[in-house]
Design goal:
heterodimer; A: about 260 residues; mainly alpha; 9 helices; globular; B: about 350 residues; alpha+beta; OB fold (Dihydrolipoamide Acetyltransferase, E2P); 5-stranded antiparallel beta sheet; 8 helices; 5 strands; about 65% helix
Chain lengths: ~260, ~350
């Protein structure tokens, strides 16, 4: 029997039991994103321009993740706008990082897996390194943007007459909490994933210089830091958007009050 | 400003290294041959002659040659200004790696700087402290794992997971009831999830799971995989549990008398909203990580089923397990908090 198949079914059943209709949608979202990535891989493999393909597929993945995640259009619109801007900024940062850091491809540590594979494949692995960085931050950025806008939206509904400054203060507190837990998740995720590699480094007595320069490890850490940066930026930007619209709406309301 | 300073410092930190470090000052490059492999991929092999100025020890100028393929799957192209980490082999020096600490340092400084601007000094320093403590704990665990011959890897990393959860929650939430309950639910859910995983693996006799595809294995891959999964699940579950508990405590502050069912329903509805996006975060990270290998295998003429089986097998297993953990955290947290709160109310 296939253990992974059983576990996927368990996950699906649990998502339906716990999440009901939202669980089904979340599961569908995962399947959609899997196909989006599939298309991305095929297109880049066919030598389409990696930058353009990544930009388009990123927008699709963000849209799926955000609009299937919640029904509240006020929340989703802010979250979508925020994530698009943040991912665009991060893509730029990723290009710069890749230029200076050369995080592409494999290293001699991979030689066992690479056995029998041709390594002169005529596909730019420099671009692929950039694609990897961008794709891996998408989830974190969308999650942070959704969380902050959903929470602030709830605060606004509970007390609709809140002033801009006090909403801003609220956004700082909530944002701080989301930031803390989200950064921890990312940190543990990366740490867990790299246990074998780190044990390898320790066992084979790599010099300390390699711990801060080796390509394999640095690629992982760059991805993690980029994700953290994405979480921070999207919390920041989303709260700014919400506070700004709130202030605008209140101005309009005051004007209306005068006119009447 | 600070980022630029960090960059400058790390560009000039060669004196800290015991290995020779050099900076490329001149590159002459020529195309040596065009290659077409058995899958009709064509690529160019280039040879570079690098003039490298050593930055520590003896400040000599040396010449190194480097060859790379245009696609740079495993080889790198070096440019003028790149700093290289070198290694002495006999009397010759060869390139160990590009020196990346300046890029990393600049990025880390940028992140910490922005964190400081965004949240107050105190909040940032607590967050940083929890990360640093966790790295130290992790280092110690690795040390024990590597140096004792018959360490129980599973037990070792379970203890590490408990310490991780305690350290990060105490530092982020303080020693409060909220922290205690979050910790409890996190540990209960993680245990349940790992138990479920072990049960299914036992029942299915590890069917369809290719532990042998694990990379960088230096010890029994199965327990190593479990260790990885425990830490990964813990992070995801902790995030979700913390969010739900925070909301339920908010309810307690506002509300007067609440029953178990109130807490239960509120917790479930919050959990439902965040569960999907949280699974998505892990999913994206995992799938991005496998991409280089997928490209390479595709280019080598493998079919998709084989590629999925070889590169994504353990990753999918891990993501699915984390997903189960995230989903399980919702009812466990809602019920546990509701039960504790309801009991408190009847007591007082």
């Amino acid at each position: 029997m296939n253990a992974i198949g059983i576990l996927v079914i368990i996950l699906f059943v649990l998502m339906i039991v716990v999440g009901r209709s939202q669980g089904v949608k979340a599961f569908l979202g995962l399947v959609c994103n899997f196909f989006a990535i599939f298309i991305l891989i095929i297109l880049i493999n066919w030598q389409f321009n990696a930058y353009i393909v990544t930009a388009i597929i990123s927008v699709i993945i963000l849209a799926v993740a955000i609009y299937l995640g919640s029904d509240n259009t006020e929340v989703t619109n802010v979250a979508f706008k925020t994530s698009i801007i943040v991912v665009a900024v991060l893509m730029l940062v990723a290009v710069i990082l890749q230029y200076f850091g050369q995080f592409q491809g494999f290293t001699t540590e991979n030689s066992e897996e690479l056995e029998g594979l041709s390594l002169t494949v005529g596909l730019s692995f420099r671009n692929i390194a950039m694609v990897v960085m961008v794709i891996s931050v998408l989830g974190a950025v969308a999650e942070a943007a959704m969380a902050i806008s959903a929470d602030l939206n709830e605060v606004m509904q509970r007390s609709p007459n809140m002033t801009g400054t006090s909403l801003y203060a609220h956004s700082r507190i909530i944002g701080g909490q989301i930031l803390g837990t989200a950064i921890n998740t990312l940190f543990f995720g990366v740490l867990g994933a790299n246990i074998p590699l780190l044990i390898w480094f320790v066992r084979l007595r790599y010099p300390i210089a390699m711990f801060v320069n080796a390509k394999l490890l640095m690629t992982e850490i760059v991805t993690m830091l980029l994700g953290m940066l994405g979480i921070l930026l999207s919390i920041w930007l989303a709260s700014w958007f919400i506070v700004r619209t709130n202030v605008k709406q209140q101005k309009v309301r005051i004007k209306h009050g005068r006119d009447v | 400003m600070v980022v630029a300073m960090a960059w400058l410092f790390l560009r000039n930190d060669a004196f800290l290294y015991t290995n020779p470090v050099g900076q490329v000052t001149r590159v002459s490059e020529k195309r040596t041959q065009k290659i077409t492999d058995e899958h009709q991929n064509s690529d160019f092999i280039m040879t570079q002659k690098l003039t490298v100025k050593l930055l520590n020890h003896d400040k000599k100028i040396i010449h190194v040659s480097n060859s790379y393929a245009q696609s740079q799957v495993i080889s790198s192209r070096y440019r003028v200004g790149d700093q290289l980490l070198l290694e002495n082999i006999g009397s010759n020096k060869h390139i160990l790696s590009l020196k990346r600490d300046a890029v990393m340092g600049a990025l880390a400084t940028l992140l910490v700087g922005l964190l400081l601007i965004y949240s107050k000094w105190r909040a940032t320093s607590w967050l940083m402290a929890s990360l640093v403590i966790n790295i130290i704990l992790f280092g110690l665990t690795l040390f024990i794992n590597v140096h004792s011959k018959n360490a129980n890897v599973l037990l070792l990393f379970s203890v590490l997971a408990i310490l991780f959860a305690t350290a990060s929650l105490v530092l982020v939430l303080g020693k409060t009831l909220q922290m205690g309950i979050t910790l409890l639910t996190t540990l209960v859910t993680t245990t349940l999830t790992i138990g479920l995983l072990l049960l299914v693996l036992r029942l299915a006799n590890n069917g369809g799971v290719h532990f042998e595809t694990m990379a960088y294995v230096t010890q029994v891959p199965e327990t190593l995989f479990m260790a990885q999964t425990i830490i990964g699940v813990l992070g995801a579950v902790m995030d979700e549990a913390a969010d739900i508990v925070a909301m339920q405590f908010g309810m307690r502050r506002e509300g007067i008398t609440r029953h178990f069912s109130d807490y239960w329903h509120a917790g479930m509805s919050v959990g439902r909203e965040i569960m999907g996006t949280l699974i998505n975060v892990l999913f994206m990270i995992f799938i991005a990580e496998t991409m280089p290998m997928v490209f390479l295998m595709l280019r080598n003429g493998n079919n998709w089923t084989y590629i999925l089986d070889q590169t994504m097998n353990l990753g999918i297993l891990q993501t699915v397990i984390s997903g189960i953990g995230i989903v399980l955290a919702v009812p466990v947290t809602s019920a546990l908090v509701g039960w504790i709160m309801a009991r408190k109310v009847t007591k007082s």
